[in-house]
Design brief:
501 residues, 11-stranded mixed beta sheet, two-stranded antiparallel sheet, alpha/beta
Length: 501
């Protein structure tokens, strides 16, 4: 039996005594320690939904998770383009402390077209997979003790929306196949439409401090989205969104020279290439390790690239493993997105072994394609076929040459920015990120120093004027929070509270 308790923002304490015998699992939520007297329990929906703008549902149980969810989860669709029937799917996790005043974060996943579910189970969300060999049963989920929405001490004070964007990611879909032809600008504008409609459906969150967050390619479009939200606020084109800033991790900017030129000096610094090779590269490549202009530079870069190929570029400490191949969509495949596939189960084929981090992605593909999961998440039947964590093959236009100009403009306007880099990422090394930050010519207000979690160095940081903070995450990879969740938790806790790292 499932009993729903509806909470008002202004309601007093629950009177649950008559229901205790029926709500034993839920009572556990009330017994968990809280960090302050103001803590409250999210048991049910916290905002009314408008059927005209979106379709949403409260999810109290998920297949593979033992018992009722110990947090408030809402899933749903928001129509962002009526003409083509484009609907973006989201997961909303409410802050476990004070959702009426705590910050709200829109979290995007890179790719482009990796599902927002990745953020929910692999980065900052309240769930994670049990790492166990797949035995034909549904992969199991457990609570993530480092969820950014948790209230158990120490506390993170944020509600989080995980969004499947652009259309074609995760469970987001469109009725018109032509709608899948989007780019960085058009998909960013769709995200702005999403947030305006989501706030209309959830008016109690309109005044909450609002942040954007994400890594990799999401780190490129987040400043673009922030720009359009800021512009909409200034021009009165939308209801006021209380945008405060953004968080980006190992962000791509769009400039190959800026993003990838640092790979060679980084590879030398961590011992992948020799002093001799590095000296030849310096002598013949004139500082450009992306676009060789002479034969000697081309030859040495080929040798260097062969050495780099020996390691996992996203996390150089990890084994070089089989990666779940992204699903490529042909024209027929796009049409198949509209067909419901009953009883989908992924059959093991050439899959990563359990020692590989990508094994978790393999488990997520199995879990998300089970009909019990789709029913629990309230996925609309017939909207997509096979769910793939990261899907490729849809047309996508990279029409933002560089996000650095957007970052600079946002800094001028005083929006807060946290730029973090896993220091074991060679895809977008921290050296390149530091280089473009220096190009902004911001004054340093807090010199380079270590930052700590539980008395141990968690990385190094410096703070700039115009509310920009840069930090490395010691031992982190391309998505630093995936590899160092405890350290990421401590970082976010301080930064969201507007405190030094």
């Amino acid at each position: 039996m499932t009993i729903k308790l509806v909470r008002s923002r202004t309601a007093g304490p629950y009177h649950l005594l008559p229901l205790l015998l029926h709500l034993a699992p839920a009572i556990l939520l009330l017994l968990l320690p809280r960090c302050s007297a103001s803590a409250s329990v999210s048991v049910s929906a916290s905002a009314s939904a408008s059927a005209s703008a979106s379709a949403s549902a409260v999810v109290t149980h998920l297949p593979g998770f033992d018992g009722p969810l110990p947090f408030y989860l809402e899933t749903g669709y928001v129509d962002v383009e009526e003409e083509t029937g484009t609907e973006l799917f989201y997961y909303f996790v409410e802050s476990e402390r004070s959702p009426g005043t705590d910050p709200l974060i829109l979290w995007l996943t890179g790719g482009p077209r990796c599902s927002g579910f990745s953020g929910m189970v692999f980065e900052v969300g309240p769930l994670k997979f049990v790492l166990a060999p797949y035995d034909g049963n549904l992969p199991q989920l457990v609570y993530n003790p480092y969820s950014w929405s948790k209230v158990r001490c120490p506390t993170i004070i944020a509600s989080i929306i995980f969004l499947d964007s652009p259309v074609g990611s995760g469970f987001s879909y469109a009725r018109d196949p032509k709608a899948y032809d989007v780019g960085e600008i058009s998909s960013s504008l769709q995200v702005v439409t999403f947030m305006n409609k989501w706030f209309s459906d959830h008016p109690s969150y309109v005044s909450n401090p609002f942040y954007l967050g994400g890594s990799s390619h999401a780190g490129k479009v987040i400043p673009v989205i922030a720009h359009y939200i800021s512009q909409g606020n200034e021009q009165g084109k939308q209801q006021e969104i209380n945008l405060k800033g953004y968080i980006v991790g190992n962000p791509i900017t769009g400039s190959n020279f800026v993003d990838f030129n640092s790979r060679v000096p980084y590879a030398h610094g961590v011992g992948i290439i020799s002093d001799q090779l590095y000296e030849v590269a310096i002598k013949n490549c004139n500082g450009d390790y992306v676009r060789p202009t002479n034969r000697m530079c081309d030859e040495v870069l080929n040798t260097i690239n062969n050495l780099i190929s020996e390691v996992n570029q996203g996390y150089i400490l990890d084994d070089k493993c089989v990666i779940i191949a992204p699903k490529t969509m042909s024209d027929d495949g796009v049409k198949d997105m509209f067909l419901s596939k009953e009883g989908i189960q992924l059959e093991p084929s050439t899959d990563p072994t359990i020692n590989c981090f990508s094994y978790r992605y393999y488990l997520s593909n199995i879990w998300a394609n089970d009909n019990r999961t789709r029913n629990a998440l309230m996925i609309k039947q017939g909207t997509i076929g096979e769910w793939v964590r990261c899907i490729k093959g849809f047309p996508y236009t990279f029409d933002v040459p560089s996000s650095i100009e957007y970052i600079s403009n946002l800094a001028t306007k005083g929006y807060r920015a946290l730029v973090m880099s896993g220091d074991h990422d060679m895809m977008v090394p921290f050296l390149g990120t530091q280089a473009w930050i220096r190009s902004l010519n911001l004054s340093i207000i807090d010199d380079w120093r270590a930052w700590h979690v539980d008395g141990q160095c968690a990385g190094f940081t410096t703070a700039y004027a115009n509310h920009m903070t840069f930090a490395t995450v010691k031992g982190g990879g391309h998505t630093a929070l995936t590899y160092r969740p405890k350290q990421g938790f401590g970082m976010a806790q301080r930064w969201l509270d507007d405190k030094p790292l």
